[in-house]
Specification:
With 1018 residues, this protein is of the alpha+beta class. It is built from 34 helices and 18 strands. The strands form six sheets. It has a five-stranded antiparallel β-sheet, with no helix packed on it. The protein has a five-stranded antiparallel β-sheet with strand order 3-6-12-8-9, with no helix packed on it. Strands 1-14 form a two-stranded antiparallel sheet. A hairpin with a 7-residue loop joins strand 15 and strand 16. The longest helix is centred in the first third of the chain and has 23 residues.
Length: 1018
């Protein structure tokens, strides 16, 4: 075995890049007859087909009978009797003849740039070598590749992890060698920004530089992975991928105040290192697979991260074609988000026809739409405490079972212990006579056309066509001589939506104004109270004189409610006095009272809420002596008592929180409400809703090796079961796309680009892996580690390839210094790998917008590290013309505490983004952002110098420096420690001191914030 060449020492430049091996290899090989290089289809041929051929000869379209999407189609006999490709025989291959032809009428491609001579040569050599055509790399079975043998690698001692051996093998294959490690300061700054999105503190840097043990890097990495800020950093990446925002987008960009729990779920999941398979399952079907886990329900916020067309999905009629189109488009967004995020698959390209380039059938796309046929986006109530959630569910199930128990005279209702409770309750009722006297309506009318029908209990049942608004006027005689208060009951009835008490589709009502008069003289109503007030819609609003406010009872629908109003001064009634009540319901949307009943009292204040109002049937049973009641009456009484008991316990539970998520269980919004069952999904010809074909069945993709996409559902009408089946399909170890996709995403965030440079497209039009074996090794490693993402992070950041210097030029100077090789004689990596695809050095990346903003807050001492909770609005919000508010970023107070939260907690508008963050390349939140643009523009420099936020942080930083150091030169040194994690050079110290002396210390801070040394990771 030949001796390994020595590794040149890093002398004279902290960033060594030696390419001497390339030079030696080139000179040693001179005069040796080289065999033709082996052509690899995926690396060498597939990119040519993708760029020049597949548009006309893909999976969906095979012009002239030529298909180049798979080997079987490519080798098939053509209509002419010829063959496009004959393995081993380029002279008989029609494809080669046509691409090499100089005759424009024959040459292919017919349109666009022809193949270059080099590309033709590659195709020719490939056919000569047998036209090997393995299955597409992304769809092949996942097997752990062998780690390259260090004995065969010249620079094996450079490697620290198996990752390095894969990288090194490819570098040596290309005649390259890796770069030496970055200095310790650069490494800690790089890894801290990578894992936390924040700069290291001077104290952390000092401790790291002082630690000269071999474990120093590992200890620093472990500390960062254990930090709670790790989850904040990686949640922000994920929010890009799934286009998370907190407004609907489209023309009605209404805010979503309950979207933020999903963001907190992400932070918690990354911090806890939740197994990736479980992470996938929870986001697609957590409510169905793990119903007892509130976090799993919150996770389904993933399905609702995208835009939602309020105009088309809520504000137009249910039966219109536009509403149907909107539903298909909304499902398309969900399908696209799911499959691009977890499988890096462009399934949405099959919406109108079979995918042109990948084996995704038109029918399979609509099978995925069928998975979400019952899924809507809305606010879902949930209990954050699992025990409360369990108790609520149990109570709801018991209440729901009562009607059947009552109907069947179930023995459980007649049990002695139940009857004993009823006897005690009945005795209590007898000792608590109601002070309220129910009025008998004499006249009653509805101005907008509703019908009012008098009931035997003194209530009025509304019916007929439901108008948008309504005003009831009711009169009655006074049965008592002194009136101190009035009561309005809103009762339930089977004829009302959800049994009422309102006529709106969701069972709600809005009483805008309630007035009472005696003989036409208005009474002054005060001290309102109700047994339940909808949030921000209270009984007090029914007497505030403001038509825009009202009393509502949502979500406590399906049960009676009451509101009580005292009279400021008691009214003495004489003779035939007429009592007049006016109930104004002018909110709109059919929020009308379904069954009102009025009462008065002469009791002294404070007036009681009579929570013991009884239905007529139960009151009749109570009038029957206990010994004379039959079992049906006893069962009815027991059912009523238990209903009231359990309902009261339900009401006593802690209030539920709301999360905006994808579900079939959410609060209705106008005419947009949960589907009773999954809607039928039809395979649309060319994606046209007016041309429906066969009904699609829920399923997924079938092209992955040895892993089908059909679902075996016990109950296809169960919306949750459909999503659960897809979730399990996605998380299955046989779904090779899932595991390749996520490790590629992790790699791309650490290195600035993925092993596959198209993170959302692993199809044939996407990029091919630069290191396919490494990609598969990482995917298997993730699987076998139990889905630990932190394990993959640790492998990456402890690798020598990650710890390399990013400086290429100093390597050339070292080569000249140690090997006396003239610079002009060196073949540099820039000549054939200028964009560093094969990682012969570390990539130099710019800080993203959030890291820039958070780093400025951190070094100025103003960063609020509070985690979680509702998003902060770093803007002034005022009502807009319609539902989209006016948003003012410019005049927002830079010293507002909201401005000091980490950027992951800022409220994100789709159509009204923060101009400062947008300038720094924050992506459009209406689009999936698999990777961000990374630009360097004059506009960014102007924003960094002049934006009010950066100006204020510069001032705050200057204050900190003056508080921590007494002298100007010491302040400049501290400035460099905080902002750049190093000491200034003598030249820098002098220049900054001079600038600070002339223009102020805050301006010196602004200059350093605007430097490349701050804006770039290293």
């Amino acid at each position: 075995m030949t001796e390994k060449p020595p590794r040149p020492p890093a002398v004279g430049c902290p960033r060594l890049l030696s390419i001497v091996l390339l030079f030696i290899a080139a000179t040693t090989a001179r005069g040796v007859a080289a065999e033709p290089a082996k052509v690899r289809f995926e690396r060498d041929v597939q990119p040519i087909f993708s760029a020049k051929c597949l548009t006309c000869h893909g999976a969906a379209e095979k012009r002239g009978g030529v298909g180049l999407s798979d080997r079987e189609a490519a080798l098939a006999e053509l209509h002419s009797g010829l063959y496009a490709i004959v393995p081993g025989k380029p002279e008989e291959s029609e494809l080669l003849r046509r691409v090499a032809s100089e005759d424009p009428s024959e040459r292919m491609p017919a349109k666009g740039e022809p193949l270059t001579a080099a590309e033709v040569a590659v195709v020719r050599r490939w056919i000569e070598q047998g036209a090997e055509w393995p299955p597409h790399w992304a769809y092949r079975l996942l097997e752990r590749p062998a780690i390259p043998d260090p004995a065969n690698l010249a620079y094996a001692e450079w490697a620290q992890t198996p990752i390095d051996l894969f990288i090194l093998a490819r570098l040596e294959e290309l005649g390259l060698q890796p770069s030496p490690p970055a200095d310790h300061r650069t490494f800690l700054r790089r890894v801290t920004f990578d894992l936390l999105g924040l700069p290291p503190t001077p104290e952390e840097m000092e401790a790291f530089l002082a630690d000269d043990s071999p474990q120093a890097h590992q200890r620093a990495i472990d500390r960062l992975l254990a930090s709670p800020h790790f989850g904040e950093r990686w949640a922000r990446h994920w929010m890009d991928v799934v286009h998370y925002a907190e407004t609907h987008g489209h023309d009605q960009d209404r805010p979503r105040p309950h979207a933020w729990p999903y963001r907190d779920y992400l932070i918690r999941s990354f911090n806890e290192d939740k197994p990736y398979g479980r992470f996938v399952e929870e986001q697609v079907a957590g409510d169905a697979l793990y119903p007892g886990d509130p976090q799993a329900i919150i996770a389904t916020g993933f399905l609702a991260t995208g835009p939602w067309d309020e105009s088309s999905l809520r504000d137009i009629r249910e039966d219109t074609i536009d509403r149907e189109i909107a539903r298909y488009l909304d499902r398309d967004d969900i399908v696209h988000t799911v499959m691009a995020t977890f499988n890096s698959a462009t399934v949405h390209c099959a919406r109108c026809h079979d995918h042109k380039f990948d084996p995704i059938a038109h029918e399979e796309y609509y099978g995925l739409q069928a998975v979400f046929a019952g899924t809507g986006k809305g606010n879902r109530p949930l209990d954050a405490d699992p025990q409360v959630a369990k108790r609520r569910k149990a109570l709801q199930e018991k209440i729901a079972a009562l009607p059947a128990l009552r109907e069947n005279v179930d023995p459980r209702l007649l049990a002695p212990e139940v009857q004993e409770e009823i006897a005690a309750w009945e005795a209590k009722l007898a000792n608590a006579a109601s002070p309220w006297v129910v009025l008998e309506p004499e006249t009653y009318s509805a101005e907008k056309g509703s019908t009012l029908t008098k009931q035997s209990d003194g209530s009025l049942l509304a019916g007929g066509e439901r108008p948008e608004t309504e005003i009831y006027t009711i009169t009655a005689s006074a049965p008592i001589e002194n009136i101190t208060g009035v009561r309005l009951e809103v009762l339930t009835d089977p004829s009302l939506p959800h049994q009422g008490p309102g006529r709106q589709d969701n069972g709600n009502l809005h009483l805008n104004e309630f007035t009472f008069a005696v003989n036409s003289s208005p009474a002054d109503l005060v001290n309102p109270k109700a047994d339940f007030d909808q949030q921000e819609w209270t009984a007090a609003m029914a007497i505030d004189g403001k038509p825009a406010t009202a009393w509502g009872v949502y979500p406590e629908v399906g049960k009676p409610h009451q509101a009580v109003f005292e009279l400021r001064e008691a009214i003495a009634v004489e003779g035939d006095a007429t009592l007049t009540f006016r109930l104004e319901q002018t909110h709109g949307g059919g929020h009308l009272i379904g069954r009102p009943r009025l009462s008065i009292t002469s009791a002294k204040a404070p007036l009681p809420l009579d929570v013991n109002s009884l239905p007529d049937e139960i009151a009749e049973v109570l009038r029957t002596p206990p010994r004379e009641r039959d079992n049906q009456q006893r069962a009815s009484l027991a059912a009523h008592y238990l209903h009231e008991k359990w309902t009261a316990e339900l009401a006593s539970l802690p209030p539920q929180q709301l999360v905006y998520c994808g579900s079939n269980d959410f609060q209705p919004d106008g005419s947009f409400r949960p589907a009773a069952a999954p809607r039928p999904i039809h395979i649309l010809h060319r994606g046209d809703v007016r041309q429906p074909g066969e009904e699609a069945q829920p399923g997924s993709l079938s092209f992955i090796d040895n892993f089908g996409g059909a679902f075996d559902l016990d109950n296809p009408s169960d919306e949750g079961a459909r999503r659960a089946a897809l979730a399990r399909w996605l998380s299955d170890s046989r779904n090779v796309l899932t595991w390749r996709s996520i490790v590629n995403r992790l790699w791309s965030y650490h290195f600035g680009r993925g092993l596959v440079d198209t993170p959302n497209d692993f199809g044939r039009m996407g990029a091919t892996p630069t290191h396919p074996d490494l990609l598969d090794w990482l995917a298997v490693e993730l699987l076998e580690s139990g889905g630990s993402l932190k394990h993959i992070h640790r492998l990456i950041v402890t690798s020598a390839v990650y710890q390399q210097s990013s400086n290429a030029e100093c390597g050339l100077r070292n080569a000249e210094l140690f090997f006396s090789i003239p610079h002009s004689a060196l073949r540099t990596p820039h000549s054939f790998d200028s964009d560093n695809r094969y990682l012969w050095r570390m990539n130099r990346t710019r800080l993203d917008a959030e890291s820039i903003r958070d780093a400025a807050l951190s070094v100025s001492g103003m960063l609020d590290r509070t985690m979680g909770g509702p998003s902060v609005k770093q803007f002034i919000q005022t009502p807009g013309v319609h539902v989209t508010p006016n948003v003012d970023y410019r005049n927002f107070d830079v010293d507002d505490p909201a401005n000091h939260r980490r950027s992951v907690y800022r409220f994100i508008f789709r159509t009204l983004p923060d101009p400062f963050m947008e300038t720094l390349d924050c992506p459009d939140a209406s689009q999936l952002a698999a990777k961000r643009n990374e630009s360097v523009t004059a506009l960014q420099a102007l924003a960094m110098l002049n934006n009010s936020f950066m100006v204020r942080q510069s001032e705050r930083l200057a204050e900190r420096l003056r508080n921590e150091r007494p002298e100007l030169l010491e302040q400049i040194e501290r400035l460099y420690e905080l902002v750049l994690n190093r000491q200034p050079t003598e030249t820098e110290l002098s220049a900054f001191a001079e600038h600070a002396g002339a223009y102020g210390l805050a301006n010196a801070c602004r200059v350093l914030f605007n430097s490349n040394a701050f804006m770039f990771v290293d």
